[in-house]
Amino acid sequence: xxxxxxxxxxxxxxxxxxxxxxxxxxxxxxxxxxxxxxxxxxxxxxxxxxxxxxxxxxxxxxxxxxxxxxxxxxxxxxxxxxxxxxxxxxxxxxxxxxxxxxxxxxxxxxxxxxxxxxxxxxxxxxxxxxxxxxxxxxxxxxxxxxxxxxxxxxxxxxxxxxxxxxxxxxxxxxxxxxxxxxxxxxxxxxxxxxxxxxxxxxxxxxxxxxxxxxxxxxxxxxxxxxxxxxxxxxxxxxxxxxxxxxxxx
Length: 249
Description:
A 10-stranded antiparallel barrel has the order 1-3-4-5-6-7-8-9-10-11. By secondary structure, it is mainly beta. Mean pLDDT is 83; it is low at 2-6 and 8-17. Helix content is 7%, strand content 67%.
C-alpha cells in the first residue's frame, strides 16, 4: 500500500523522463524524546525565579516522553524543512528549605519550525545543508507551591507565552562505511533578540539504513532558550535521548 502511494505521488510530482536531481524527495521522521529540563521561570514579582529541574535520567525513569516529527522535501539543491516538537515535563523539589516550602512544576513546550534549506555538499558519502527559517514557541508553565509559610505558600502560578524567532543552521549526515550505518545531525541558533535573547538547538544521531526507504536512529538533542519580556521569564535547557524512525519516498 505504501509503495503504491509513493508511486502515485512520484507520478504526479515528477515529469516524464526526469533525473534523480529533478525529483522531489520526501522524508517523514517521527521521534520520541526523553527530555530532561534545567532552568528557571518567573514567579510573582519581586519574588525570585523558580527552578525547573528534572534530569534526562529521571525523565527516562518516569517515562516523560516528548514527541517530534520532522518532515523534509528536497529537489536538487533546494529543500524545505518542518520540525514539530511537544514536551510535557513535571518535577518536584525543595524550593526554600528554611521555610520548608516545596515546588511542583509542569512545563509544556511546543516548537514549530519551518525553514528553507540549500545543499552545500552532496555526494554518495555525505551531505551538508544550510538552512534559514523561523521557529514559533508555545510555552506554558504551572508552579504549585506547598508547605511552609509566606507569600508563596499554597500558591499556584500559571504562566504562558507565544513568540516567533528567526533562526539559521546547518544539517548533514555522513555514511560510516558500506554496512548501512551513518552519523547525522544539525545545529541551529536563533532569536537574535527579536523575541528570545538567543536559543540553540543541537542534534546528533547514529542511524542505520535498513533499506532505500527506511532508517532508524538513536541520538541526543539539546534545546537551550533564553526568553524574558519582563512579564514572562523562560530560561531553560531541555536535553535527552531521541529514538527515531524515518521513511523516505
